[in-house]
Amino acid sequence: MHKSILGKRATTLIGLLMGVWLLNSQLLAQAPAAAAGTLETIKVTGVSLQGNLEGDSAERDVFVYLPPGYASSPAKRYPVVYFLHGYGVGAAVYANNVLKLPGSADTAIAAGAQETIVVVPDAFTRYGGSMYSKSPTIGDWEMFIAHDLIDYIDANYRTLAKRESRGLSGHSMGGYGTMRVAMKHPEQFVALYAMSACCLMNTAPEKAAVDAQNARVAAGIEVYKAGTFDNALLAQAAAWAPNPQNGPLFFDFPYQNGEAQPVVQAKWAANSQLVLVDQYVPELQQFKAIMLDVGDKDGLVTTNTQLDAALTRLGVAHGWEVYDGDHGNRIGQRFIDKLLPYFSQHLKAE
Fold this sequence. Notes:
alpha/beta; eight-stranded mixed sheet; 13 helices; 12 strands; disordered N terminus
């Protein structure tokens, strides 16, 4: 009798569980799929880039992530995070393969980050990257990011078009660009996040490196191979040592005819963040929040640690983290887990 009762109870319990499972399955089948964001590719013409001597197009590809609610809430406006990509590849590689938009931003929002527009402009130039700098050779990338691009995005998307709702971020060359552009234009952004910033302490290349580049130039440079650093010296020279009278390259090398050029050599150091930061303390102190991070196995960990120390010495409030990783292997996940939640804290929503 006792076994029979247990058997009946077990059968009843199984029946109830099956009923609950079937009901849940029906509800799930009837429930609409979770809303997803979208990724658009647009063209933005940069007035600040027009007429650059390098011959790069002033019409730039820009990737724009629109959060899930953008289409369904036509009256709502959103904060914006601008993300600057690294050297050697264009914005498409970062948007699609590194950050993995739109899925990554959807994941962050589903986990609690506020809905935000994300903008990734392309800064791939003739020599692989603009360094987000300013020269007649490459054009004014500082103004393009801080004004041309922002003006276009604010005019064509439902943004909260104010400093309090705008953040600037980037990785590697983009981390350098984040600090550089922000220092020059603190009126445009309220919060910064620089990931594994490069070029914090620049040393002019040695004579052997310059000779090798001169030989390449004389032989005719091949079409740039994305993902390499073959033309990094040329990109830096175009950004930091322009010379409109020295065609056809329109920049100077730190050695000429085998002789060192001290002024040109000094230009590399002069464009180092560890040199520049002391000159922009009042501007940096205007930001509501500044975050720096770098992997503990990244070759740039030393200079990033020095930037953290410099900001501390200068009284510039900021966050700082060294995490388990190298220069690139954690960027996509940290974009989800760290960067977007960080801007959720510091950008003013509607």
